[in-house]
Amino acid sequence: MQQANLPTAVTFDQSRLRIEDIVAIAQGTATATLSADPAFRAAITRGADFLDRLLAEDGIIYGVTTGYGDSCTVVVPPELVAELPHHLYTYHGCGLGQHFTPAQTRAIMAVRLTSLSKGYSGVSVGLLEQITRLLQQNILPLIPSEGSVGASGDLTPLSYLAAVLCGEREVWHDGREQSAQQALQSAGITPLRLRPKEGLAIMNGTAVMTALACLAYERAQYLTRLCTRITAMASFALDGNATHFDATLFSVKPHPGMQQVAAWLREDLQCEQTERNGKRLQDRYSIRCAPHVIGVLADSLPFFRQMIENELNSANDNPIIDAEAEHVLHGGHFYGGHIAFVMDGMKNAVANLADLLDRQMALLVDSRYNHDLPSNLSGARGPRAAINHGLKALQISSSAWTAEALKLTMPASVFSRSTECHNQDKVSMGTIAARDCLRVLELTEQVVAALLITVRQGVWLRCRLNPAVQPEANLAEMMQLLSADIAEINEDRRLEPDLRLMLTRIREQSWNLYA
């Protein structure tokens, strides 16, 4: 029986992996293991052996006996074929920007290993074992985040993985930056000498954008639940009309994700009682239409999952090696259009959550609209109320983060550029879309952190104003959890520490929300 304190293992073979497998490896809660199944290893070996036979017969193989991209018409002399993979990752060592985080890098390595394990890339078992060793030893290539157009795959960022496998460039290991050669030597790992197609197989694929998409999906999925809980608390604080989330009402508009959000809100609020209590007939849209806004993301997630996991489980380099039929198939599976579309769509839906919550906050702090709560939700009373400003500045910051998130929703995929002597004349921009999406998620989580402080304060003030009104079980539990982290705001105080703690809670997914 597996010990509870040990991470689970994700086995890499030809079977289908899920987003959660990649996220677990990224987060360090699972280890990577290459299958020892003889049938799997034989299938991988067949591809490499087939390429060896072609080379022995003087076969012409793109990227093996020819130059790359527009240089495919250049024939490489047989005595130089072995050097070609080294040149490929060397001249692509031109990335810039911040390095990917350790978690992102582990995800990238795991995604590339998944694709190469499908058996259509013509690589050796030794290459798969080398990637697995690096993951197990947590030797992580320092990969610059900028420089990929998303076709012919993530060439430049993945060149840093290829180089590290061979003992070149730099890595993160043991909590510090060091040379790959030093890290491999300390771990007892022999640098690889890449076989003829292996440099191309590592680099010519969608691993970076797909890895980032897996990480983005997991964060977006949690936000659908957390934003729903915040909306319930905002509705309670605003003395809202919970019949807006009535089951019969939502039965006539059959979007299942939207209906689920409404059902969660019904769990949190007393729909039946509020109609008898003389509530406002129609709340403003940021409350009344919250299921319709959050529901767009909730309804899109299954589609996003399908697209991401199909890409994750694809052989996406070029050429594809069909060892069974002994064919070399030249195509364009490195094109990241599906991931680009998902990331452009996800960042739009997520940014709308930020906009929704920012509007809820604007209602909560404004005494014209918050139904008798104090201005800016300040808890100060008596003469000191004059000098206390509550959440006034927090609302400004929330608006700034929202505006920046909305600004980033321009689709990246429509900005294709013709590159590489017009060989790569239509490219996906999938990695840029994925990086944009992660930034939108980061900004939206900052808005969510602000709203957690806001609704905690708003619910407390509503109960102080009318002690007979108390939140239902779910909201009462959430208030208890938030109150353990966030003190009531009577006197003005610096809120940055509260915000940073909330961001930690959000990113650790600390709250179990809904069954």
- As a percent range, the share of strand residues is 5-15%
Q: CATH superfamily assignment of the largest domain?
A: Fumarase/aspartase (Central domain)
Largest sheet: 3 strands, antiparallel
First-to-last CA distance = 28 Å
Rg estimate, integer Å = 27 Å
- Low-pLDDT runs: none
Shape: elongated
What integer is the average pLDDT?
94
Based on secondary structure, the structural category is: mainly alpha
Specify the CATH architecture of the largest domain. Up-down Bundle
Number of domains: 2
Widest sheet, order of strands: 4-6-7
Q: What name is given to the CATH topology of the largest domain?
A: Fumarase C, Chain A, domain 2
The number of distinct helices, counting runs of at least 4 residues, comes to 19
Mind explaining what this structure looks like?
- There is one protein chain.
- With 515 residues, the protein is mainly alpha-helical.
- The protein has two domains: 198 residues, Orthogonal Bundle (Fumarase C, Chain B, domain 1), CATH 1.10.275.10; 229 residues, Fumarase C, Chain A, domain 2 (Up-down Bundle), CATH 1.20.200.10.
- It is 53% helix and 6% strand.
- The protein contains 19 helices and nine strands.
- The chain has a three-stranded antiparallel beta sheet with strand order 4-6-7. A two-stranded parallel sheet has the order 1-2.
- Helix 3 packs across helix 6.
- The radius of gyration is 27 Å and the shape is elongated.
